[in-house]
Write a structure and sequence with these properties.
This protein is of the alpha/beta class and about 260 residues long. The protein has 11 helices and 5 strands. Strands 2-3-1-4-5 form a 5-stranded parallel sheet, with helices on both faces. Helix 1 crosses helix 11, helix 4 packs across helix 5 and helix 6 packs across helix 10. The two termini are about 20 Å apart.
Amino acid sequence: MIIELFGPPGAGKTTFAHALTNRLRECGHVVEPTLSSRPAERRSSTGSRSSSPAQYRVAAVARRLIRPLLEMLSMAGHPLVLSHDIGAAASLMRILPPRNMSAAIRLSQYILRLSRSWYYASASRHIVLFDQAFVQLIFSLAVLGREVDESLIARAFESSPKADVLIRLDAPQELRAARLQHRERQQGAIERLFELDVTANDASVRIIDQLHDLLRNSGQLVLHASSLDRRSLGESVDYIERQLIVMFKGERKAMAS
């Protein structure tokens, strides 16, 4: 089963992914989280102080550079799968080309790595949880695109693989903006260069709403959650857990029949 989170920047997707992963594991499920890599955020959340801020930022930049390189080298060893990944990247980039070359290069590399992760997740027998994947990718392409309308977003959605469960995260604009500002303060100047210029404004929510409407019209189930604070995070994890349990029971009945 593949679970995919999506939502506007700063909605709390990665925080929720960690909380849901821990809850499902406590219930005995095997869960493999596939999370976006922001080392500075990880240091903030874990409270690690084993190194100075400057040292940690240098290490964070190194990880941001090395991780994609290692993944691309791994992909090069599987040419048949790589050709599929390249096809997926080329298709999406043709439909929603970014305005500038820098964003196009970074998103192309990201699509390749995401396609590889999705390939393995689709063959897995346990739960694989993405804090952001193809729905969020289409959002980024739409925000950073040249001239984007709903028909192009629909085409990109139709050409992308679909998760078994989609969870939308929401938060007020003021809270999302504050979170993004905090994230930026935790990062060094070089690490901020790795971030795409996707802001927490009302336009981003409108595009998320468009994507949500497309998902709903296609008949795909979308669950709602929030991580505004510790209480709402806990309540949302409880709700999602209950919904997933119902789905698991339905799958077992279908298999038994």
